[in-house]
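Now for my pick.
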Amino acid sequence: MLEKCKNPRKKVLVLGRAGIGKSTFCRYVAYRWATGEIWPQYDLVVVIPLRSLTKDHYPCGTTYAPIDL
């Protein structure tokens, strides 16, 4: 799915209703990449669990680095 993109920065957005398996799919893709089964041309695959990205965990007005997420 990423091979057709001309932009050197590749991004994938996974959308769907709650409980359909988005998180499971993302973990599966990250696992397959980590084991070398897919996308060897990429140095890094990042999965950001957005469920915990709330004002309670990360108050507004504070700057966060990607590693904080």
